Amino acid sequence: MATGENFTLLTDLYQLTMAHSYFREGKSELATFSLFIRSYPPNRGFFVAAGLRDVIDFLEALSFDAAALDYLKLLNLFTDDFLHFLSGLRFTGDVWALPEGRIFFPDEPVLEVTAPIIEAQLVETFIINQINLQSLIATKAARCVHAAAGRSLVDFALRRTQGTDAGMKVARASYIAGFAATSNVRAGERYGIPLAGTMAHSFVTSFEREIDAFRAYVASFPNNAILLIDTFDTLHGARLAVEVAKEMAARGQRLQGVRIDSGDLEQLAIAVRRVFDDAGLKEVKIIGSGGLDEYDLARFTDAKIPYDSYGVGTKMGVSADAPWSDMAYKIVEFGGRSVLKLSTGKESWPGKKQVFRGHDDQGQLSGDVVALRGEQIARAEPLLTPVLQAGKIAGGLPTLVESKSVCRDELDRLPEIYQAIVNPAHYPVQFSAGLKNLRDSIRKRALQTQ
Question: Which of 104-118, 338-352, 411-425 shows the lowest mean pLDDT across its residues?
Fold first, then answer.
């Protein structure tokens, strides 16, 4: 999201047409909308919350500027009095949300908005757009971190993400989820994420000899050089890297590592490790890259393939095996009256809510309860916190580093069966008696009045 740009028109047309009808009908009561995911994509056992910071920034800045109003007038859909109303519209509501980095599960509210109905309706599209993408990426990235079993990961996704904004959000979300760095320089500048990178094959092929490319690169970066060794023949490239590493050692320098980006990544890593070990260069690291995701990393970990770290790009950056979720933003209260949706397969839970998280005696996560906002669940932690009150930030927001720490702590306490890369167990989520009773009474009333 470009700094300073007005995103108020980044919405679906029907949000504005509904707002127009609300306005004409004089509907200005408070409404509460709840954001949640209905079901797991394949091989998912949890989600990581991300994107809240962008939502807060958007809501704080919400306004229709002159250019936006001029465009809406050209559509010949809206009356002048409605456009005048929009000219003074600001977000004045409250937001309760799950902090970034915390994990969540289907049917649990990630965020709830309470505001005058027009305000709460207009912001739906942007909220889903930001939290859906960033949570999907953070979840995919967290699975990669888990599969890598302690080896560091670098975000290499920028060139193949779905646009510039997605590239920025991928760097941020993957960092929250546990990646150590990104190759995205703009993300480094904007978010303070550490940067990492090596070289491309084009650099190597621009020299007549591969070893000349290596020597030129380490001359420029004697303290942090990582050589790409698979441009021609990976094992030959490794032996040339040994030669360069010894030349560096004679100058009091040290080659940091080499990267393998193609071929049989498992067998090549074993062979390259042997080349360096036989040369007495056990300290030289081996970095793997090239179309990797959590399934590859888990296989390498299980086989004890000697990679020290990985560059993870395309498949993480587009959440390739699960590129979408059934995230919904549904009205649950209007004018003090709890409401629900009864559509087949899409029935919602009414009322303002809270999510409570239980832990066992060892501190491991043991189960969640979705309850009404005013309920209390014994020996359980409430997760949703007020982040906006009357349109203003309620207290300090965590830094990116703090959100990263929260994510690591939460996943460390999530039992392994729910983090399995393939066919994870489903974490227990229950619904309180108060919430069930409210749902049953509203369903009964709704069916009688239709």
Answer: 338-352
pTM over 0.90: yes
Q: What is the mean pLDDT of residues 240-246?
A: 98
Strand pairing class (257-260; 285-288): parallel
Domain 138-317 CATH assignment equals 3.20.20.70 = yes
CA distance to 5, 202, 292, 316, 320, per residue, from 311 (Å) = 32, 18, 8, 10, 16
pLDDT (0 to 100) of residue 3: 57
Q: Tens of pLDDT along 270-284? A: 999 999 999 999 999
Nearest to 91 by CA among 393, 328, 384: 393
Question: What is the CATH topology of the domain spanning 13-136+322-449?
Answer: nicotinate phosphoribosyltransferase (3.20.140)
Query: Where does CATH 3.20.140.10 sit in the chain?
Result: 13-136+322-449
Q: In this predicted model, what pLDDT tens digit does every residue of 11-49 receive, in sequence order?
A: 999 999 999 999 999 999 999 999 999 999 999 999 999
